[in-house]
Amino acid sequence: MRRTTYLIPVVVAVVALALSSMFIVDERQKALVLQFGRVVQIKEDPGLGFKIPLFQDVVRYDDRILSIDVDPLEVTPLDDRRLVVDAFARYRIADLERFRQAVGLGGEVSAANRMDGILRDQLRATLGSVSSNDILSSDRLALMLQIRNGAAEEAEALGISVVDVRLKRTDLPRENLEATFERMRAERVREATDERARGREAAQRITAQADRTVVELVSDAARQSEIIRGEADAERERVFANAFGADPEFFEFYRSMTAYQRSLRGNNSTMVLSPDSEFFNYLRSDTGASASE
C-alpha cells in the first residue's frame, strides 16, 4: 500500500514531463524551439514535435500570407502635385530564424510595424520619381511592381517574403480638391469659349462663301438670261422681218391684233381716240387698210 502511494506521484510526474516535452504545430503555423533564447530547432511541417521540458520553449508564427494596410500617405511626384496614396501589401514569413533574430520578442506585431516603415519609404521613393499623371493613370502596374521589388529587398533582411503590393487609392489632398476643381472648370470654360469662337469663325467663313456663291450664280444667271433674251429678241425680229417681207398685209394684221390685246384690257385707263383713227382699221373691217380706202 505504501509502495503504491509513492508510485502514483512518480507516474503523474513522468506523464506530465512527457506531455510537456511534446508540442503540436498547426498546418497554419511554423514553430521555433528556443533554448535560453537561442534557436535549436525549426519546425516548419505540421505535426507533433518534441522539446526538452523546462529548458526549451516553443514559439509559433503564422505561416499564412499576411496583409498590412498602409495608412494614407502624402507623396510629392516630380510635377509637385501632391497626392494622398492608400496602399496594402501581402507578405509571409519565409525564414523563421532570420525573422526571430530581426524582430525578437516583438513577433508579428513588430514585423508589421517594420513592414509599414519599409512600404512608406518605397512609396515615397518610387512615386516621387514619376509624374502625377503616371500615378493617376490606369496603367500603373509597373509602379506597383517596382514598389514590391524594392520592399522585397529590404524585407529579406527580416526573413519576410513580399508577395504583392497594390495601390488602392490615389487622390488629391482635401484642401487642394476645390482649387483643382476650379482650375478644371476654368479650363473647360476656356476650351468651350475657344470652340464657340472657332465655330463662329467657321460659320462666318461659310456664310461669306455662300453669299459669294449666290452673287456669282445670280450674276451668271442674269448674264445668261440677257444673252438668251437678246437672242430671242433677235430671232423674233428676224421672224417678224421675214413675215413682213413675205406678206406685209398679214404682218400689219398681226401687229394690230397685238396692239389691241395689250391696250384693250379691263384694268386699263380710259382711252380717247377719234373713230376714224387708223388704230381701229381692223375693228371696222377684216381687210384693215383697204376698208378705209
Task: Write a compact overview of the structure shown.
Helix content is about 55%, strand content about 20%.
Helices and strands in order:
Layout: H1 2-20, E1 22-25, E2 29-35, E3 38-43, E4 47-50, E5 56-62, E6 66-75, E7 83-93, H2 96-103, H3 107-127, H4 132-136, H5 141-155, E8 160-171, H6 174-246, H7 248-263, H8 281-284
Antiparallel strand pairs: 1-4, 2-3, 2-5, 6-7, 7-8
Helix pairs in contact: 2-3, 3-5, 6-7
What does this molecule look like?
With 293 residues, this protein is an alpha+beta fold. Among the domains are: 2-61, no CATH class; 65-172, 2-Layer Sandwich (Tetrahydropterin Synthase, Chain A), CATH 3.30.479; 247-265 and 275-287. 55% of the residues lie in helices and 21% in strands. It contains 8 helices and 8 strands, in the order αβββββββααααβααα. The chain has helices spanning 2-20, 96-103, 107-127, 132-136, 141-155, 174-246, 248-263, 281-284; strands at residues 22-25, 29-35, 38-43, 47-50, 56-62, 66-75, 83-93, 160-171. The strands form 3 sheets. The chain has a 3-stranded antiparallel sheet with strand order 3-2-5, with no helix packed on it. Strands 6-7-8 form a 3-stranded antiparallel sheet. α2 packs across α3 (107-127). The longest helix is centred in the last third of the chain and has 73 residues, at 174-246. The model has no long low-confidence stretch (mean pLDDT 79).
